[in-house]
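Example record for the data management plan.
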Amino acid sequence: MTPTLVRNQLGADASAPADAGTRARDWAEIQERMLAPLYEAVYDRMEVGAATRMLSLGCGSGLAMLVAAARGAHVTGVDSDRERLALARARLLPDAGWDDAPAHSPHPARRRARLLEDGVPAPVGADGAPYNLITVFEPIGCAAGDSEGLVPALRSAVPLAVRGATVVLTGWGPPERCATAAVLQVAARLADTARPPRTEPGRWRPTLRDDLEDVAARAGLKPDGSGRVSCPFGYADVGSAVRGLLSTGLFDTAVRATDRSQVEKEVAEALHPYQREDGTVWMPNVFRYLVCVT
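Corresponding structural encoding:
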């Protein structure tokens, strides 16, 4: 747990309202950074730099794009979550849009990034050339139906890339390697308490070994390597952990089956084994990524 992480999260209130704006901020301020090691590992392997023209599907609040732009990449992000996209815009384009960002801008990322509404990819990369890297950094594999929208999105995006472009898919690692899986099981148990039990898409399920390969096959992609990355989830306190985890959407089915207060209470209880003496919460996790070619 770094001092910065603790300082930024102290005072979090797990009973904060669950409106869309608050949830998006919880994701951006608490949860999104937990996946930073995954972003860095993928970019190192793909040698992301000035020659990279990246399309980020499900870009969220833009941290992965910011990291790539800092390496010199031209990045385009799309997302259907307007609240997260607004936060990404504030991060990447705080003063000007893509077209009118001055060439002498002290923030080069502003000249190499653009964000698109409603999850619709543009026909060319941000510098006027086709994409050569497509990334999906929203991990799949622990919620029923979490890949259903991904396959058509990939099919739409691939024609916008150069022939032989790289596509990187990401997912949760094996449950036995992810401490957070035990906490996520709370979502499934609470969904089962409803009468009748809630079984709609989004309900937690154990990660399967070939989740990413299945998506690649359905999207017409050819696997070309894979990797695993340690992404521990570290929080300043239980309240921050509850807010961060609920911002992922993985507990939405449980909230609909019971109520938010009940979910918050039981998630907090499930976090106790991972709470340290100083009050911080630490959960080791492993995430997978699959490298594919178009």
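Summary line stored alongside the record: The chain has a mean pLDDT of 85.
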